[in-house]
């Protein structure tokens, strides 16, 4: 029974990390005390920010791909400066509008994540994900040479690094915009 309670608590923690709902779960202190030295529990706690960061990353790209720019803007914590420069007629504070213009007019490749190839962390709360993106037909997106360059001068790129920052009591946020194709 205690094992089931621990599994339920961990599942809720993953689904609800940072939302404060777990403060009054009956038996939480007891289960946490019993399992705090368990190696698998320590590994679960250490990987939770990475799991949350990866979920936010894939959700952000999915929302952009689906045209849900209001929701995507909530998950983005990076600079809008480039999009503001490309779209001077838009309100600088209209983040959803800027993302929409970036995806639909300015050449951002707002595609779904095909695969996460690797993850690196610098301090346990900032993650760099190397990802591949999917074309609408499901094939891998490859960014080819640009602006008259040859493949030797500008080799095709099929993986991209995207940073996600997670802080305690604050949701994870994507820091980098999708790849740009001029």
CATH architecture of the largest domain: Roll
Q: State the name of the first-level CATH class of the largest domain.
A: Alpha Beta
Taking the sheet with the most strands, its summary is: 4 strands, antiparallel
Overall domain count: 2
Structural class per helix/strand content?
Answer: alpha+beta
What's the pLDDT, averaged over the residues?
80
- The H/E string reads HHHHHHEEEE
Give the beta-strand count: 4
Low-confidence segments: 1-46
- CATH topological fold name of the largest domain: Nuclear Transport Factor 2, Chain: A
How do the strands and helices of this protein lay out in sequence?
Elements: H1 2-15, H2 28-35, H3 39-65, H4 69-74, H5 81-86, H6 95-104, E1 112-121, E2 126-134, E3 160-167, E4 170-174
Antiparallel strand pairs: 1-2, 2-3, 3-4
Helix pairs in contact: 1-2
């Amino acid at each position: 029974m205690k094992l089931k309670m621990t599994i339920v608590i961990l599942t809720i923690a993953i689904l609800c990390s940072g939302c404060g709902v777990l403060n009054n779960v009956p038996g939480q202190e007891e289960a946490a005390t019993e399992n705090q030295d368990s190696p698998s529990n320590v590994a679960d706690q250490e990987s939770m920010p990475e799991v949350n960061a990866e979920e936010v990353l894939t959700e952000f790209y999915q929302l952009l791909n689906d045209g849900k720019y209001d929701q995507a803007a909530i998950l983005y914590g990076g600079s809008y400066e480039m999009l503001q420069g490309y779209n001077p007629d838009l309100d600088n504070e209209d983040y959803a509008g800027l993302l929409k213009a970036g995806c639909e007019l300015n050449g951002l490749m707002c595609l779904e994540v095909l695969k996460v190839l690797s993850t690196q962390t610098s301090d346990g709360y900032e993650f760099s994900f190397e990802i591949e993106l999917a074309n609408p037909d499901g094939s891998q997106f490859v960014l080819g040479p640009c602006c008259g360059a040859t493949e030797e001068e500008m080799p095709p790129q099929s993986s991209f690094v995207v940073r996600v920052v997670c802080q305690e009591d604050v949701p994870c946020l994507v820091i980098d915009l999708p790849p740009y194709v001029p």
